[in-house]
Write a structure and sequence with these properties.
Layout lengths: L1 H7 L9 H9 L1 E6 L4 E3 L7 E7 L2 E6 L5 E7 L3 E3 L1 H6 L6 E4 L3 E7 H7 L4 H27 L2 H11 L9 H7 L4 H13 L3 E4 L2 E5 L1 H8 L3
Antiparallel strand pairs: 1-8, 2-7, 3-6, 3-8, 4-5, 4-7, 9-10
Helix pairs in contact: 6-9, 7-8
Keywords: DNA-binding, Transcription, Transcription regulation
GO molecular function, one term: DNA-binding transcription factor activity
Pfam family, one: cNMP_binding
Length: 217
């Protein structure tokens, strides 16, 4: 019963009756990962539908020069790379855990056959894809139209509650900028009393002042 209650917290399964949940669990498994563990590599063929239960998962690609390009950070609870399952394609990017985490791995062939006919589930997957498309559009728009200071300010504005848990090096990676560049911007925002920094962590922000930094774009 405890396991069923845990699964009920996931939107994708919240409407399922106990009998269907029991069946779903019969071809699913919960996996634990440590920070730095790879979930999948670019080019691999997917066999499971993944649901992130705990932790932070980084989706990234590697350019021809070997540089890492961060595409997205996924936080729980969330489907992971569900488009590759729907389209029958290989993973177009890699995924690595940025913290210890847990994944629910569901045998996709069985799930597709016995569950995707459920309208509520199909609708949830569409909503999940829509959120990811919107996030990607924001990343593209930000990189094309904003200077680095504006991108940093917008990130601090959008992620204000998560900032105390993020190192500046990790923030630089998310924004595809160098730690040195981020450090200069953080120093500037701190001197202007737009953010408060303690022991290298950003613990408080003035959202009104931050908005002024990127509102022209």
């Amino acid at each position: 019963m405890r396991i069923q209650m845990e699964w009920k917290k996931i939107d994708l399964f919240s409407a399922l009756e106990e009998e269907r949940l029991d069946y779903l669990q019969s071809f699913s498994k919960k996996l634990s990962y440590q920070e730095g563990n790879i979930l999948f590599f670019e080019g691999e063929k997917p066999n499971h539908l993944y649901v992130l239960l705990k932790g932070i998962l980084k989706i990234y690609k590697t350019d021809p020069r070997g540089n890492e390009v961060v595409i997205h950070y996924i936080q729980p609870p969330s489907l992971v790379a569900e488009l590759v399952n729907l389209e029958g394609m290989n993973y177009p990017a890699s995924a690595i855990f940025e913290s210890d985490g847990e994944i629910l791995a569901i045998d996709y062939a069985i799930f597709e056959r016995d569950f995707l006919k459920n309208g509520d589930m199909a609708f949830y997957i569409i909503k999940s894809l829509t959120r990811k498309i919107k996030a990607l559009e924001e990343v593209i728009t930000s990189n094309l139209t904003m200077d680095t200071t504006s991108r940093v300010a917008k990130f601090f504005y959008d992620k204000s509650e998560e900032l105390p848990c993020l190192s500046q090096r990790k923030i630089a990676s998310i924004l595809n900028t160098t730690p040195e560049t981020l450090s200069r911007i953080v120093k500037k925002l701190k001197e202007e009393k737009i953010i408060t920094v303690e022991k290298g962590s950003i613990i408080e922000v003035n959202k009104g002042r931050l908005k002024e930094e990127f509102d022209l774009f």
